[in-house]
Design goal:
The chain is mainly alpha-helical. Helix content is 54%, strand content 12%.
Length: 135
């Protein structure tokens, strides 16, 4: 769908990037006061989004294990079981799992980290730098 702006030029609405819609739905669920319906999520993410699209995203997130649902009459109420960081980690894991040489992928990734991110990763792994060199 194209729209015209004030000077008569046509503009297409910006398409969301891959995973962006999932992140927006997950963020809405994370802010919810408790389990909520798909319409509640639709209103928070944007009125231009079709209900069926919201349901598709929720179902995909359910399959990924980052949301849960419970029966509420004839429909479902949804709840976040992971935050945006959890969803990003899931996407990273999916990429890693799709590659043959996991070691090469991890090594390449680590070499692109900033010094601060490398220190953080070492802290998260419980390594101050010496243990990896010794092992």
């Amino acid at each position: 769908m194209e729209r015209q702006d004030g000077d008569g030029r046509e503009h297409r609405p910006r398409r969301r990037g891959q995973g962006e819609l999932e992140a927006q739905v997950l963020a809405a669920l994370h802010e919810a006061p408790g389990p909520v319906g798909a319409v509640w999520v639709q209103e928070r993410v944007g009125g231009d989004l079709a209900y069926t699209t919201v349901m598709t995203i929720l179902t995909r997130l359910l399959a990924k294990g980052v949301v849960s649902r419970e029966r509420a009459g004839r429909s479902f109420h949804w709840r976040s079981t992971a935050d945006e960081a959890g969803l990003a980690a899931l996407r990273m894991r999916k990429v890693l799992d799709s590659e043959r040489d996991r070691g090469a992928v991890l090594a390449s990734f680590v070499t692109t980290l900033s010094a601060a991110d490398e220190r953080l990763l070492r802290e998260l792994l419980g390594d101050t730098g010496g243990a990896a060199a010794e092992g």
